[in-house]
Amino acid sequence: MTKAFPAVDLGGVTRQVLADSPELMVVSFRFSKDAEGALHNHPHVQSTYVKTGRFAFTIGETTTEIGPGDSFVIPSGATHGCVCLEDGELIDCFTPRRDDFL
Predict the structure, then answer these.
(1) Nearest to 13 by CA among 1, 27, 29, 26
(2) What pTM did the predictor assign?
(3) Which domains are delineated in the chain?
(4) What CDD domains does the entry give (predicted)?
């Protein structure tokens, strides 16, 4: 069993690794209203679950408003990012693990 790592303040966004193994990582991202997850891409497949809050989430050329209970998968290499519309938390899973978060 893995213990959660300390939270990292990224300025409006707090990231905390909740669990990891070489094959999978679970991460909590807590956003303040108007905070952004800048557009980016990575080789990992990502699954996102909206625990709380509202977000404008962009994948590729499509932006969708999402809220509590919504979930989706982001393919490897897809450009994505978000803007927080009201304080909230996203739970992301990455496969394989994001070693850059350790």
Answers:
(1) 29
(2) 0.95
(3) 8-101 (2.60.120.10)
(4) cupin_KdgF (cd02238)
